[in-house]
Design brief:
It comes from Perca fluviatilis (European perch). The chain has about 325 residues and is α/β, with parallel strands linked by helices. The protein is built from nine helices and twelve strands. The chain has a single domain, classed as Alpha-Beta Barrel (TIM Barrel).
Length: about 325
């Protein structure tokens, strides 16, 4: 990792290998007890202007109108750097929502979506992630696949095809889900087994040993930061410190599903609202952690801004020391 020094202090300037830099006493800590930076709607930087509108439902009928698709793409773009750049920045959890494109000439291809489908297909992105994981064997990646839009026809066949693709791409890197008899994975146990990819698959009918069940994602379901903070505080309090599984705390804001969505799409760009809210949300996160010092995955929009990654990583303790390659 790169570093700069001044007055005897070390400043982290790259988090591409932050897990391997954590204090040794954290190497045996279950992964659900580590604070892990994540990205919300991780592939939204890649939305395809030629895709039909998938959400919100109120705008689906306007899909033929290019101007409306452009507005949806602007509103739905919650990440502005590629998946590889997110990995390099230190993000280790990815919110990956899967869909099939309407009237796709290749019906067995899968894409990501947020408002619109992505240009890049799922397998291509998974291979990019696998290539990165191969170069960073001590960084544990958590991929949360969910939603599966337009899987209504041949649903079991489509899920099986996607699962086989996941297993083929990642192979021996996949960390199997734990049973009641298994100890929860730690950094050390993953390193010893040479496994550094965990795939959460939110479809209970297709839970195979290589796949983990859905990871609970707490979010405020509001465009108001104060409402989001209050909802997250309530959820974290209800969860308590003794649960023993992964969970994600979403700092992201959420567009309304009623007619108020048009206010943000046409008058108050949601991207600007999101950017204005992140510094406040990070301050809330630090205060929350000082009061109830447990946190697992923390997900956000625009993950390379406002010291999001470093703020989350430092919840694990002192800033990890850097070692130059």
């Amino acid at each position: 990792m790169a570093m700069s020094t001044g007055e005897g202090k070390t400043e982290v300037t790259s988090y591409s290998d932050w897990m391997s830099q954590l204090a040794p006493e954290l190497h045996d800590t279950p992964l659900y007890k580590l604070a892990i930076p994540g990205s919300h709607d991780s592939m939204s930087y890649d939305l395809d202007i030629n895709s039909a509108i998938i959400e919100p439902d109120r705008l689906k009928s306007f899909s033929p109108i290019l101007y409306i698709r452009e507005i949806v793409r602007t509103a739905a773009t919650t990440q502005d750097v590629t998946i590889t750049q997110q990995l390099d920045a230190g993000v280790r959890y990815f919110d990956l929502r899967i869909a099939r494109k309407t009237n796709d000439p290749e019906p067995n291809k899968f894409y990501f979506y947020h408002g619109l489908c992505t240009r890049t297909d799922v397998e291509t992105v998974l291979r990019d992630i696998n290539d990165w994981a191969e170069k960073h064997p001590k960084e544990i990646l958590i991929l949360a696949l969910s939603h599966f839009k337009d899987f209504d026809n041949n649903i079991e066949e489509l899920h099986q095809k996607l699962i086989e693709s996941i297993k083929t791409v990642f192979g021996a890197k996949l960390c199997n889900k734990v049973s009641t008899q298994d100890p929860f994975p730690t950094l050390k146990s993953c390193w010893e087994k040479g496994k550094n990819v965990i795939v959460s698959y939110d479809y209970s009918a297709n839970q195979e040993p290589e796949l983990w069940p859905r990871i609970t994602y707490y979010y405020g379901n509001s465009m108001d930061p104060a409402t989001v903070e209050s909802k997250l505080e309530s959820d974290l309090h209800m969860r308590g410190p003794n649960a023993q599984d992964f969970f994600a705390c979403g700092l992201n804001l959420t567009l309304p599903e009623d007619f108020w969505v048009f206010r943000y799409i046409f008058f108050d760009n949601p991207t600007n609202v999101l950017q204005r809210s992140l510094p406040r949300m990070l301050q809330w996160l630090k205060q929350q952690y000082s009061q109830t010092p447990y946190m697992n995955i923390v997900a956000s929009d625009f993950v390379t801004r406002d010291d999001f990654v470093s703020t989350v990583v430092q919840l694990n303790g002192p800033t990890p020391k850097c070692v130059e390659a």
